[in-house]
Amino acid sequence: MVYSAYTVGMEFTSIPTDKWEWHPSPLPSQITLVTSRGADGALDLAPKSCLAVMAFDPLTVGFACNRGHTTYQNIVRTGEFVVNVLPEGLAPLAWAIIAFQGQERIDASGLTFLESKRVAVPRIAECTAHLECEFDDAVAFESGEAFVYGRVLAADILSEAVGAGERGYRLLDPCFYLDGGWAGMGAAKRPEA
Ligand SMILES: Cc1cc2nc3c(=O)[nH]c(=O)nc-3n(C[C@H](O)[C@H](O)[C@H](O)COP(=O)(O)O)c2cc1C
Predict the structure, then answer these.
(1) Residue nearest to atom 17 of ligand 1 (CA)
(2) Residue list, ligand 1 pocket, CB within 6 Å
(3) What does the pLDDT read at residue 87?
């Protein structure tokens, strides 16, 4: 096995511990659209990218969210959210919609909302996979952010992508937040047996 291009001899430069100063960012993270509802039932939609799988059984996912955001307020009040996987072709939408709030944002998105199977929060038809989640807890930080997490009650993915091997990822078409922009995934690969 030869990994020579990435071993001895590389030089490293210290970077600040301020994520906004990372160019390039060493931690690209997947961009999703999180849907949630307020106590009055009002639908909210927001891009979230600081996302992680926290536990496998039961499957628990979470994301970092500013506590002032409607997404956070909705989730802690109504206890549900859906993580919608944003395909790269729709990445510009993530930036475009945050200029709007509330119903104006929903309208401006031009997206289509489908009833979910296990939660009252809808899924987004144009997104390539959906994780329907029940809020579990949130860990608050002094910065005003929180890590919000919940159990995945139901999940679905573009039918064509299921069992399609590496092509499945091309169909899922995930995109990743860099430092102010995004990138697609490129070709999917697997380690040699
Ligand atoms: C590509 C992208 C990724 C983002 N990721 C996050 C994130 O992980 N956490 C967060 O709190 N805000 C994130 N934001 C910012 C929020 O989406 C934005 O502040 C939004 O207005 C919050 O909406 P809300 O108040 O309806 O929740 C991101 C924005 C963009 C464009």
Answers:
(1) 47
(2) 31, 44, 46-50, 63-66, 69-71, 94-95, 98, 177
(3) 97
Instruction: In whole angstroms, give the CA distance from residue 72 to residue 92.
Output: 23
Tell me, in angstroms, the distance from the centre of ligand 1 to residue 174's CA.
17
| pLDDT value for 4 | 62
CATH class of the domain defined by 26-180: mainly beta
In degrees and rounded to multiples of 5, residue 26 shows phi and psi of -75, -5
Q: What is the pTM of this model?
A: 0.96
Residue segments in the chain with a per-residue pLDDT below the cut of 50: none
Q: What is the pLDDT of residue 192?
A: 79
Question: Which atom of ligand 1 is found nearest the CA of 72?
Answer: 27
Amino acid letter, 64: A
Peptide bond into 58 cis (omega under 30): yes
All residues at 6 or more sequence positions from 108 whose CB lies less than 8 Å from its CB, including other chains: 96, 97, 99, 100
The whole-number pLDDT of residue 143 equals 95
Map out the domains of the chain as residue ranges. 26-180
The minimum-distance atom of ligand 1 relative to the CA of 69 is 25
* CA–centroid distance, residue 94 to ligand 1 (Å): 8
Residue 188 has a pLDDT of 78
Residue ID of nearest Cα to ligand 1 atom 23: 46
